[in-house]
Specification:
Elements lengths: L3 E11 L2 E10 L1 H12 L5 H23 L7 E7 L6 H13 L9 E7 L5 H7 L2
Parallel strand pairs: 2-3, 3-4
Antiparallel strand pairs: 1-2
Helix pairs in contact: 2-3
Protein name: Spo16p-like protein
GO molecular function: DNA secondary structure binding
Organism: Saccharomyces pastorianus
Length: 130
């Protein structure tokens, strides 16, 4: 497992969402592995999709355990990566592909999106990117 969840932060009543969970994720090991795949001539897409699915399942489990979470239409999960390697738009494509291939439970009634760890105010990001 190449992800490390560093922090889970709750933001309530952001835009139309009742709750946004900002999950800070250390992606350094993943990016290192992707670099190796790219050097070997592999595009790394299948690998990243598989890793994203593992991350989503793990985050969903952690949220359910810590909050007794029952997904509702206003729940959003911001995966806040320490290192992006690719553009946010490309990550969004990979994220959507990962979600499309997953069973319904970790994705039903939950909106996922990816950002990079920055000093930008997260609430403002969520409001402008919905």
């Amino acid at each position: 497992f190449l992800w490390k969840v560093l922090r889970i932060q709750e933001l309530r009543n952001v835009n139309e969402h009742f709750l946004v969970n900002c999950i800070t994720v250390d992606t350094s090991r993943l990016v290192s592995q992707v670099d190796k795949l790219l050097k070997a001539g592999d595009n790394g897409v299948d690998f990243i999709v598989q890793q994203l699915q593992l991350l989503i399942k793990d985050v969903y489990r952690q949220l359910r355990r810590s909050q007794g979470m029952v997904p509702e239409p206003s729940l959003a999960v911001n995966l806040n990566f320490t290192i992006l390697k690719f553009s946010v738009a490309y990550w969004d494509i990979l994220l959507q592909r990962s979600l499309d291939l997953m069973p319904e439970v970790p994705r039903r009634d939950v909106q996922y999106f990816i950002t990079e760890v920055t000093s930008v105010e997260r609430i403002r990001y969520v409001e402008t990117n919905q």
